[in-house]
Amino acid sequence: MKILTLVFLLISFLLKGQDPGPDSLAMEKGGKFSLYVAPGYSNSQLVDIRASYIEIHVGLVYLERIDFDIYYSAVLDNFKKQIIFPSSHEYDQRNIGIRAQYSFLKKWIRPHIGIGYQFTEAIWLPESDSEQEFNDYIDRGSLYCGFGWLINNTFTLKADIGYGIASGVDLIGFDSGDYDGFEFNVMLKIKLLRI
């Protein structure tokens, strides 16, 4: 309990003691919107393993607080499973998603909360051309929270943790609970322009 209290006090001190920084001053002179691109990495529950994904985000920020982005991601951890005896299939997954979030502060460290929706194509790829490919389309919603660290006027490092729930899972060898679970995401936002 003492450690938790100490961590809370340290975070409160860091957030309260920040000066607004150069980005807030630039915001007063620039437009209300900024456009960014962000490479990212995420890790989430998949069956009984933690799956890693590589992502690319394109987003728009309004008044440095409201953030909308769309993204594409692909699974890095392909694995094989024998779903129909005697052949094995390799799992592959591609995702397209949208996210909306709200940042509480316009400081160097910016805590945020958000929601997301992800449309997933999950595929069992056969080892040979003579075998059948299986695929399914899955919906997944998530809630998350995290923080952004404003490195300078161009770069912001973001990290968040959340929980996702899937629906519409009809792929052989899976059910909805196999896609439910905690997720972690980190990205480097690169501001392209202010409008």
CATH classification class: Mainly Beta
CATH fold topology: Porin
| Count of discrete alpha- or pi-helical segments spanning 4 or more residues | 2
**What is the CATH-assigned architecture?**
Beta Barrel
- Rg over CA atoms, rounded to whole Å, is 20 Å
Spatial strand order of the main sheet? 1-2-3-5-6-7-8-9
What is the number of E strands?
A: 9
Shape: elongated
Rounded mean pLDDT is 83
Spatial separation of the terminal alpha carbons:
46 Å
Please tell me about this protein's structure.
With 195 residues, the chain is mostly beta strands. The protein has one domain (2-194): Porin. Helices cover 12% and strands 63% of the residues. The protein has helices spanning 2-16, 21-29, and strands spanning 33-46, 49-62, 66-75, 80-84, 87-103, 109-126, 134-150, 155-167, 181-194. The protein is elongated and about 60 Å long.
Using brief descriptors, characterize the structure shown.
195 residues; mainly beta; Porin; eight-stranded antiparallel β-barrel; 2 helices; 12% helix
How would you concisely characterize the structure shown here?
By secondary structure, the chain is mainly beta. Helices cover 12% and strands 63% of the residues.
